[in-house]
Each structure stands twice: as C-alpha cells, then as structure tokens.
Amino acid sequence: MASSLESTLTRAWLRRGPLALALWPLSLLFRLLAALRVILFRAGILQSERLPVPVIVVGNIFIGGTGKTPLTIWLVEQLRAAGLQPGVISRGHGGEGDSGPREVLPGSSAREVGDEPLLIGMRTGCPVVVGRRRAEAGRHLLESHPKVDVLVTDDGLQHYALQRDVELVLFDGRGVGNGWTLPAGPLREPPSRRRDFTVVNTPELTPALALAVGGRPYRMQLAGEYAEQLRDPQQRLPLSTLAETMAGKRIVAAAGIGNPSRFFSMLKAAGLRIEELPLPDHHDFLDDPFKDLDAELILMTEKDAVKCRQLEHLNNDPRLWVVPVTAQIDAALAAQIVEKCRGRPTA
User: Fold this and answer.
1) In the chain, at which end, N or C, are there fewer CB atoms within 10 A of the end residue's CB?
2) What is the rounded distance in angstroms from the CA atom of residue 212 to the CA atom of residue 191?
3) Looking at the predicted structure, is the pLDDT value of residue 5 above 80?
4) Is the distance from CB of 66 to CB of 172 less than 8 angstroms?
C-alpha cells in the first residue's frame, strides 16, 4: 500500500496535474515553514554549530535518490588527491543504531550504521561516523581521528544545525520535477535555493535541464564497466562480455535505491537484456526477494550488495553479481572545492 502511494506521488510530482494542483496550497505552507526555519537559524534563534575544520555538504533538494553516495566517494578521493585528509559524517539512513554517534568499522553491519555509510567506508577507507545530530557526529570523528582536516557530510543539506563552508546540490535527469515543494512536488526547498555548486547526474545535460536546476551545473555520469560475483569478487567480467555470454538467458537486475531506473538504463546501455526488479530504497533483503526467482544471473547495485554480503544465504548464491559504479565529473569542480576550503577561516 505504501509503495503504491509512493509510486502515485512520484508520477504526480513530475507534472502539474490534478493531484499536484490539489496539494499545491499545502506546498505553499511547507515552503513558508521551510523559509521560516532558515530565518530562525540565520538569526541565531535556532542554534547552529561550527566545527574547527571546513565542512562540505553533499545533498539534494529533490526527495529520493539522485546519486549522492557515488558523488561523496568521488569527492573524498579528489580531496585526498589534493593532499587533504577527509572524513565523512552521515545520518545513517537504513541503520537501526541509536541517536548517538557511531563509527563505521570493517565489521559494522548495514543494520547498525546504514547501507550508504558502510559502502562509503568500504570504497574510500576514510573515517566515517553516523549520527542523527551531525555536529555531534563530526566532533566524535575529529576526536577519534585528529589528522582529519575536512569533513564531507553525506546528505544533510537541510540540517542547518551544522554550519557548512561548501554546499553541493545534486540533481538527476528528473531536474526539479514540476518545480513545486512537498507535498505538491518533489522538492524540499525551492529551486532558487542558494548553493556553491550544482551537479546533475545525467548522461546528457540539455540546455533545458541546466536552466531548470540553475547554478551553472556540472555533469556527473555513473560508469559501470564490469560485474563481480557477490560471493567471490575475484570473479569479474566486463558488462560487454556478460551481454555476449548470457545472450538468450534470463537476467534480472535488482535495485533497492532511490531511482532504480538509472541503474537499469546503465545496464541496457551496456547491451544487457534484463528484467527489472525495483525494490524499496534501503531494502534490507531479510525477505530474500530472489528465493523463488528463476533467473540464471541477478545483477545488483553496490548499495544492495553490502547488505546481501552480510546474509549467509544470499552471499552464497552464485547467481548474484554486483555492478560497481564510479562517478565521472570534471576535475575543475574538485579544484574549486579545494580552493574554497583552503580559503575559509576554519581551514
């Protein structure tokens, strides 16, 4: 029932149809309350904390997944290449931990810390701490890792209790949808919201899309070139080879991410003929959606894989293969972010 309602709203948010128009008065109230909240933080009535190192926020105003985790991983790698020592803080969506800060360790489970922070930690090797109060999570990380000299917060654009030095707002090919705020549209804040940099996760950045999101956007592409077996990552094949060897066989692609169609489109572009199995974002896989699936190959995202590896019955399923993706963005963006960080008083 919840999934059906979410699907109905998602479709309604892409145009200004009858449902969106009916909800439009409520969106005006939402926008007013959001603006009031920003004013209260700026006036100091609501308290906001500044940490002793530069803070970079990677977030979005479009509700749901736009590709923040791959962007965060790319940014961490770019900061490290520039000679900085980054750490990452996150809310830890999908985790069941308490509200206090918790460090992501090699033995952490996705149920404890969330699937995205666990993936970021595995891919980057940098310190990652999760917590509902991001300033507290940031303090905890800096106390535990005093060499860290810049923090990246995965999501948290609207978490104004933590002051930030650089803001990146990420969109995908859906742009701003119908351009309205919740609940009549998909936006947490209006498209005119200030930001330092705009990134659009899309194969093609058209002039119309660039105009809709604003902010002289950079284009980001997610590239997936190979798949590796879940239970034995040493077993690795290019997607083009899989497309040839598995021709005529049943291939299912599963994705428990915010926008599964993006993953499916990437696989199809690589020549794979797939059946799509979209799953809820942050799906925990305890129900084993593959148990009765008559397929010879099941492809999944890295975000899903970090949870499946921790479930023995799934980790041992030879049909399950993971498709890692890497964000490709103009290196000029990283150079400007580094320059902003080094030019701030907290640097």
Assistant:
1) N
2) 8
3) no
4) yes
DSSP of 251-270 = EEEEE-SS-HHHHHHHHHHT
Q: How far is CA 128 from CA 120, 277, 309, in A?
A: 8, 30, 20
What is the SS3 assignment for 3? helix
Q: Summarize pLDDT for 232-263 with one digit per residue, the tens.
A: 999 999 999 999 999 999 999 999 998 899 99
Contacts of 38 (CB under 8 A, 6+ apart): 160
Tokens of 192: 């005119």
Q: Find the mean pLDDT for residues 328-345.
A: 91
- Look at residues 309, 297, 298, 303 and name the one whose alpha carbon lies nearest to residue 325: 303
331-343 and 68-81 helices cross at what angle (nearest 10)?
A: 70
Q: Is the pLDDT of residue 134 over 90?
A: yes
Residue 258: name the closest of 283, 221, 290 by CA: 283
Cis previous bond, 52, omega within 30? no
Indicate the SS3 state at residue 212.
helix
